[in-house]
Specification:
Elements lengths: L1 H19 L10 H20 L3 H18 L21 E3 L5 E3 L18
Antiparallel strand pairs: 1-2
Helix pairs in contact: 1-2, 1-3, 2-3
Amino acid sequence: MLGLVALLLSAAVWLEYLVRIPKASVPRRPFVHAGLQIAAVGLGIAAIATSQMAVLGLAGVLLAGFFLWLLTQASMPQDTITVAVGDRLMPFVARTDAGATFDSAQLEGSRVLPKFFRGHW
C-alpha cells in the first residue's frame, strides 16, 4: 500500500504543478511541492524496504526524484522584466544559425519584436 501512496502523492504534486504553469501561478520557491515530493520519496523507500508494492514505490521515488532534480536546474529570472512599445533595442552582436555575424544596428529604424529562447532545457 505504501508504494501506491508514494506514486499517487508524487503524481498529484506533478499534476498540480503542471496545471499552474499555463496560469503563470507557479510559486517562486516551491517549498510545499518539494516537501511533498520528499515525503513521496520517503514513502517509496519505505515501500521498497517493506516490500509493500515495491515496484510502485520505486516508480514514486523516480517520479518524485525527477521533479526534485528539475527544481535544481537553471531557474527563470526573478526580476520583473518589462519592455514597452517604443523602447530602444539594446545593441548586440550575435551569430546566425548559418554562422554569419548579425549586428542589431542593422535593424535601426525598423519595428522589431525580439524573442529570446533560453534553449538549455
